[in-house]
Amino acid sequence: MGERVTVVEVGPRDGLQNEGTVVPSEVKVAFVEALARSGLQVVETTAFVSPRAIPQLADGATVLSSVRRRPGVRYPVLVPNAKGLERALAAGAREIAVFTAASETFNRRNVNASIEESFERFAPVLARARAERIAARGYVSCAFGCPYEGAIDPRAVAEVAARLLLAGCSEVSLGDTIGVGVPTQVPEMVGRTVEAGVPLGALALHLHDTRGTALANVAEGLRQGIRIFDSSAGGFGGCPYAPGAAGNVATEDLVWLVEGMGFETGVDLELLVDATEGVARALGRVPPSRVYHAVKAARERPAAPSSN
Fold first, then answer.
1. I need a labelling partner for 188 at 20 to 30 A (CA). Which of 25, 80, 173, 281 fits?
2. Which of 69, 171, 73 is nearest to 129 (CA)?
3. What residue spans define the domains of the chain?
Protein backbone atom coordinates (compact mmCIF):
# COMPACT_ATOMS: atom_id res chain seq x y z
CA MET A 1 0.00 0.00 0.00
CA GLY A 2 1.28 3.46 -0.91
CA GLU A 3 1.79 6.43 1.38
CA ARG A 4 -1.40 8.24 2.34
CA VAL A 5 -2.35 11.60 0.86
CA THR A 6 -5.16 13.58 2.47
CA VAL A 7 -7.56 15.24 0.07
CA VAL A 8 -9.38 18.22 1.59
CA GLU A 9 -12.58 18.58 -0.43
CA VAL A 10 -13.59 22.26 -0.65
CA GLY A 11 -16.30 21.95 -3.32
CA PRO A 12 -19.30 22.67 -1.09
CA ARG A 13 -17.68 25.93 0.01
CA ASP A 14 -15.00 27.18 -2.38
CA GLY A 15 -16.52 25.36 -5.34
CA LEU A 16 -19.95 26.96 -4.91
CA GLN A 17 -19.25 30.39 -3.43
CA ASN A 18 -18.71 32.11 -6.78
CA GLU A 19 -21.56 30.42 -8.66
CA GLY A 20 -24.40 32.69 -9.77
CA THR A 21 -27.00 29.90 -9.75
CA VAL A 22 -28.21 29.45 -6.19
CA VAL A 23 -28.05 25.79 -5.20
CA PRO A 24 -30.90 24.67 -2.89
CA SER A 25 -29.87 23.74 0.65
CA GLU A 26 -31.05 20.15 0.26
CA VAL A 27 -28.84 19.73 -2.83
CA LYS A 28 -25.84 21.04 -0.90
CA VAL A 29 -26.55 18.63 1.95
CA ALA A 30 -26.82 15.72 -0.50
CA PHE A 31 -23.57 16.88 -2.14
CA VAL A 32 -21.68 16.88 1.16
CA GLU A 33 -23.05 13.47 2.13
CA ALA A 34 -22.21 11.98 -1.28
CA LEU A 35 -18.66 13.33 -1.09
CA ALA A 36 -18.21 11.70 2.31
CA ARG A 37 -19.56 8.39 0.96
CA SER A 38 -16.93 8.48 -1.79
CA GLY A 39 -14.20 8.07 0.81
CA LEU A 40 -13.14 11.68 1.29
CA GLN A 41 -12.15 12.17 4.92
CA VAL A 42 -12.30 15.98 4.98
CA VAL A 43 -15.26 17.83 3.42
CA GLU A 44 -15.30 21.59 3.95
CA THR A 45 -19.04 21.99 4.26
CA THR A 46 -19.84 25.70 4.13
CA ALA A 47 -18.83 29.15 5.41
CA PHE A 48 -20.31 31.42 8.03
CA VAL A 49 -19.63 34.67 6.23
CA SER A 50 -21.84 37.66 5.52
CA PRO A 51 -24.85 36.63 3.40
CA ARG A 52 -24.52 39.95 1.57
CA ALA A 53 -20.92 39.16 0.60
CA ILE A 54 -21.50 35.50 -0.39
CA PRO A 55 -25.25 34.93 -0.99
CA GLN A 56 -24.65 31.34 -2.11
CA LEU A 57 -23.58 30.37 1.41
CA ALA A 58 -26.26 32.25 3.34
CA ASP A 59 -27.77 28.89 4.33
CA GLY A 60 -24.60 27.66 6.06
CA ALA A 61 -26.32 26.92 9.36
CA THR A 62 -29.08 24.94 7.66
CA VAL A 63 -26.62 22.92 5.60
CA LEU A 64 -24.21 22.08 8.42
CA SER A 65 -26.93 21.14 10.90
CA SER A 66 -28.68 18.96 8.30
CA VAL A 67 -25.71 16.87 7.16
CA ARG A 68 -25.72 13.27 8.41
CA ARG A 69 -22.14 12.88 9.50
CA ARG A 70 -20.14 9.75 8.81
CA PRO A 71 -17.75 8.44 11.47
CA GLY A 72 -14.17 9.36 10.71
CA VAL A 73 -15.07 12.23 8.37
CA ARG A 74 -14.23 15.83 9.27
CA TYR A 75 -16.61 18.65 8.30
CA PRO A 76 -14.74 21.98 8.74
CA VAL A 77 -16.38 25.33 8.03
CA LEU A 78 -14.86 28.69 7.15
CA VAL A 79 -15.36 31.52 9.66
CA PRO A 80 -14.17 35.14 9.27
CA ASN A 81 -14.71 36.49 12.78
CA ALA A 82 -16.16 35.91 16.25
CA LYS A 83 -19.73 36.43 15.01
CA GLY A 84 -19.25 33.79 12.35
CA LEU A 85 -17.80 31.41 14.92
CA GLU A 86 -20.84 31.82 17.18
CA ARG A 87 -23.13 30.93 14.29
CA ALA A 88 -20.95 27.98 13.35
CA LEU A 89 -20.88 26.60 16.88
CA ALA A 90 -24.65 26.94 17.18
CA ALA A 91 -25.00 24.87 14.00
CA GLY A 92 -22.74 22.12 15.35
CA ALA A 93 -19.31 22.94 13.92
CA ARG A 94 -16.43 20.93 15.36
CA GLU A 95 -13.68 22.22 13.09
CA ILE A 96 -13.10 25.65 11.59
CA ALA A 97 -10.86 27.46 9.15
CA VAL A 98 -9.73 31.09 9.16
CA PHE A 99 -8.13 33.01 6.32
CA THR A 100 -5.79 35.83 5.50
CA ALA A 101 -3.46 36.61 2.59
CA ALA A 102 0.16 37.12 1.69
CA SER A 103 -0.88 40.26 -0.24
CA GLU A 104 -1.93 43.42 1.60
CA THR A 105 -3.96 44.69 -1.35
CA PHE A 106 -5.85 41.44 -1.84
CA ASN A 107 -6.60 41.18 1.88
CA ARG A 108 -8.07 44.68 1.89
CA ARG A 109 -10.21 43.89 -1.16
CA ASN A 110 -11.27 40.54 0.30
CA VAL A 111 -11.99 41.38 3.96
CA ASN A 112 -11.47 45.17 4.12
CA ALA A 113 -8.54 44.78 6.50
CA SER A 114 -4.77 44.70 6.47
CA ILE A 115 -3.01 41.41 7.13
CA GLU A 116 -2.26 42.62 10.66
CA GLU A 117 -5.89 43.56 11.23
CA SER A 118 -7.07 40.17 9.97
CA PHE A 119 -4.90 38.47 12.60
CA GLU A 120 -6.42 40.74 15.24
CA ARG A 121 -9.91 39.79 14.05
CA PHE A 122 -9.48 36.06 14.26
CA ALA A 123 -7.31 35.98 17.42
CA PRO A 124 -10.44 35.64 19.60
CA VAL A 125 -11.82 33.08 17.16
CA LEU A 126 -8.79 30.84 17.58
CA ALA A 127 -8.74 31.40 21.35
CA ARG A 128 -12.37 30.29 21.56
CA ALA A 129 -11.65 27.32 19.31
CA ARG A 130 -8.89 26.19 21.67
CA ALA A 131 -11.21 26.57 24.64
CA GLU A 132 -13.87 24.48 22.87
CA ARG A 133 -11.24 21.94 21.73
CA ILE A 134 -12.10 22.63 18.11
CA ALA A 135 -9.42 22.14 15.46
CA ALA A 136 -8.53 25.17 13.34
CA ARG A 137 -6.96 25.47 9.93
CA GLY A 138 -5.46 28.57 8.32
CA TYR A 139 -5.56 29.65 4.68
CA VAL A 140 -3.01 31.95 3.06
CA SER A 141 -4.45 33.46 -0.12
CA CYS A 142 -2.32 34.70 -3.04
CA ALA A 143 0.72 32.66 -2.00
CA PHE A 144 1.87 32.27 -5.62
CA GLY A 145 0.77 35.63 -6.98
CA CYS A 146 -1.78 38.44 -6.56
CA PRO A 147 -4.20 39.98 -9.09
CA TYR A 148 -3.31 43.44 -7.75
CA GLU A 149 0.34 43.21 -6.65
CA GLY A 150 1.70 40.60 -9.05
CA ALA A 151 4.53 38.39 -7.77
CA ILE A 152 4.59 37.64 -4.03
CA ASP A 153 7.82 37.09 -2.11
CA PRO A 154 7.87 33.50 -0.73
CA ARG A 155 9.38 34.90 2.47
CA ALA A 156 6.21 36.92 3.04
CA VAL A 157 4.14 33.78 2.51
CA ALA A 158 6.27 31.84 4.99
CA GLU A 159 5.94 34.61 7.59
CA VAL A 160 2.14 34.63 7.38
CA ALA A 161 1.98 30.83 7.47
CA ALA A 162 4.18 30.68 10.58
CA ARG A 163 2.04 33.31 12.29
CA LEU A 164 -1.08 31.23 11.61
CA LEU A 165 0.55 28.24 13.26
CA LEU A 166 1.60 30.29 16.28
CA ALA A 167 -1.90 31.77 16.50
CA GLY A 168 -3.39 28.30 16.98
CA CYS A 169 -3.90 26.70 13.57
CA SER A 170 -2.86 23.06 13.44
CA GLU A 171 -2.68 23.09 9.63
CA VAL A 172 -1.84 25.81 7.09
CA SER A 173 -2.92 25.78 3.44
CA LEU A 174 -1.01 27.88 0.89
CA GLY A 175 -3.37 29.06 -1.83
CA ASP A 176 -2.66 29.81 -5.47
CA THR A 177 -5.83 31.89 -5.51
CA ILE A 178 -5.55 33.09 -9.10
CA GLY A 179 -3.82 30.05 -10.58
CA VAL A 180 -0.53 31.63 -11.67
CA GLY A 181 1.83 29.19 -9.96
CA VAL A 182 4.29 26.95 -11.80
CA PRO A 183 6.22 23.93 -10.45
CA THR A 184 9.53 25.82 -10.11
CA GLN A 185 7.92 28.00 -7.41
CA VAL A 186 6.88 25.09 -5.22
CA PRO A 187 10.27 24.05 -3.75
CA GLU A 188 11.14 27.54 -2.48
CA MET A 189 7.59 28.12 -1.21
CA VAL A 190 7.60 24.87 0.74
CA GLY A 191 11.21 25.20 1.85
CA ARG A 192 10.89 28.73 3.21
CA THR A 193 7.63 27.91 4.99
CA VAL A 194 9.17 24.89 6.69
CA GLU A 195 12.23 26.96 7.63
CA ALA A 196 9.87 29.53 9.19
CA GLY A 197 8.60 26.84 11.57
CA VAL A 198 5.63 25.17 9.86
CA PRO A 199 6.11 21.36 9.97
CA LEU A 200 5.89 19.71 6.56
CA GLY A 201 3.11 17.46 7.85
CA ALA A 202 1.01 20.52 8.74
CA LEU A 203 1.35 22.14 5.32
CA ALA A 204 -1.20 21.90 2.49
CA LEU A 205 -1.45 23.27 -1.03
CA HIS A 206 -4.66 24.87 -2.35
CA LEU A 207 -4.25 25.19 -6.11
CA HIS A 208 -6.54 26.84 -8.64
CA ASP A 209 -6.28 25.76 -12.27
CA THR A 210 -6.73 29.05 -14.12
CA ARG A 211 -3.75 28.44 -16.41
CA GLY A 212 -3.75 24.66 -16.40
CA THR A 213 -0.74 24.22 -14.12
CA ALA A 214 -2.43 22.97 -10.94
CA LEU A 215 -1.72 19.26 -11.48
CA ALA A 216 1.91 19.98 -12.35
CA ASN A 217 2.17 21.90 -9.07
CA VAL A 218 0.56 18.98 -7.21
CA ALA A 219 3.17 16.61 -8.65
CA GLU A 220 5.97 18.91 -7.53
CA GLY A 221 4.32 19.31 -4.14
CA LEU A 222 4.36 15.54 -3.73
CA ARG A 223 8.06 15.49 -4.59
CA GLN A 224 8.66 18.14 -1.92
CA GLY A 225 6.89 16.04 0.71
CA ILE A 226 3.46 17.68 0.78
CA ARG A 227 0.78 15.12 1.69
CA ILE A 228 -2.29 17.38 2.03
CA PHE A 229 -4.00 18.93 -1.00
CA ASP A 230 -7.22 20.92 -1.33
CA SER A 231 -9.48 20.28 -4.32
CA SER A 232 -13.01 20.83 -5.57
CA ALA A 233 -15.23 18.08 -6.96
CA GLY A 234 -15.69 18.62 -10.68
CA GLY A 235 -13.25 21.53 -10.68
CA PHE A 236 -15.89 24.14 -9.85
CA GLY A 237 -14.94 27.31 -8.02
CA GLY A 238 -13.36 30.71 -8.15
CA CYS A 239 -12.93 33.73 -5.92
CA PRO A 240 -15.28 36.75 -5.86
CA TYR A 241 -12.27 39.02 -5.23
CA ALA A 242 -9.95 37.50 -7.84
CA PRO A 243 -11.47 38.31 -11.25
CA GLY A 244 -10.92 35.58 -13.83
CA ALA A 245 -9.74 32.95 -11.36
CA ALA A 246 -10.84 29.45 -12.27
CA GLY A 247 -11.86 26.72 -9.88
CA ASN A 248 -9.66 24.59 -7.69
CA VAL A 249 -7.92 21.61 -9.17
CA ALA A 250 -10.66 19.02 -9.69
CA THR A 251 -10.82 16.32 -7.04
CA GLU A 252 -11.27 13.64 -9.71
CA ASP A 253 -8.12 14.79 -11.52
CA LEU A 254 -6.15 15.10 -8.28
CA VAL A 255 -7.12 11.60 -7.13
CA TRP A 256 -6.22 10.09 -10.51
CA LEU A 257 -2.79 11.76 -10.51
CA VAL A 258 -1.94 11.04 -6.88
CA GLU A 259 -2.96 7.40 -7.02
CA GLY A 260 -1.23 6.98 -10.39
CA MET A 261 1.96 8.17 -8.69
CA GLY A 262 1.66 5.39 -6.12
CA PHE A 263 -0.07 7.15 -3.22
CA GLU A 264 -3.34 6.24 -1.50
CA THR A 265 -6.33 8.57 -1.07
CA GLY A 266 -9.11 6.17 -0.09
CA VAL A 267 -11.44 7.83 -2.62
CA ASP A 268 -13.73 5.84 -4.91
CA LEU A 269 -13.71 7.70 -8.24
CA GLU A 270 -17.04 6.25 -9.37
CA LEU A 271 -18.79 7.52 -6.23
CA LEU A 272 -16.99 10.85 -6.50
CA VAL A 273 -18.27 11.31 -10.06
CA ASP A 274 -21.79 10.55 -8.83
CA ALA A 275 -21.42 13.29 -6.20
CA THR A 276 -20.21 15.79 -8.79
CA GLU A 277 -22.99 14.88 -11.19
CA GLY A 278 -25.66 15.81 -8.67
CA VAL A 279 -24.38 19.32 -8.05
CA ALA A 280 -23.57 19.84 -11.75
CA ARG A 281 -27.24 19.28 -12.58
CA ALA A 282 -28.26 21.88 -9.99
CA LEU A 283 -25.79 24.38 -11.42
CA GLY A 284 -26.69 23.60 -15.03
CA ARG A 285 -22.98 23.44 -15.79
CA VAL A 286 -20.57 20.94 -17.29
CA PRO A 287 -17.78 20.13 -14.79
CA PRO A 288 -14.30 21.20 -15.97
CA SER A 289 -12.72 17.99 -14.62
CA ARG A 290 -11.19 15.83 -17.33
CA VAL A 291 -11.25 12.65 -15.27
CA TYR A 292 -14.94 13.22 -14.55
CA HIS A 293 -15.62 13.09 -18.30
CA ALA A 294 -13.31 10.10 -18.78
CA VAL A 295 -15.19 8.12 -16.13
CA LYS A 296 -18.53 9.12 -17.66
CA ALA A 297 -17.36 8.09 -21.12
CA ALA A 298 -16.15 4.72 -19.83
CA ARG A 299 -19.58 4.08 -18.31
CA GLU A 300 -21.28 4.73 -21.63
CA ARG A 301 -18.85 2.66 -23.70
CA PRO A 302 -20.38 -0.65 -24.87
CA ALA A 303 -18.95 -3.72 -23.19
CA ALA A 304 -16.49 -5.76 -25.25
CA PRO A 305 -18.06 -8.89 -26.75
CA SER A 306 -17.33 -12.14 -24.97
CA SER A 307 -14.82 -14.48 -26.63
CA ASN A 308 -16.69 -17.57 -25.43
1. 80
2. 171
3. 6-300
Name the class of domain 6-300: alpha beta
Nearest to 144 by CA among 103, 107, 114: 103
Where helices occur in the chain by DSSP H, the ranges are 25-37, 60-66, 82-90, 104-111, 115-131, 154-167, 186-195, 214-223, 251-260, 269-283, 290-300
**Tens of pLDDT, residues 290-307:** 999 999 999 988 766 666
Q: What are all long-range contacts of 69-72, with beta carbons under 8 Å and residues at least 24 apart?
A: 69/36, 70/33, 70/36, 70/37, 72/41
* DSSP state at residue 58: T
Query: For residue range 260-279, what is the model confidence (pLDDT) as tens digits?
Result: 999 999 999 999 999 999 99
**Is 0.85 topped by the overall pTM?**
yes
Residue 239 known to be catalytic: yes
Q: Give me the catalytic one of 142, 146, 169, 239.
A: 239
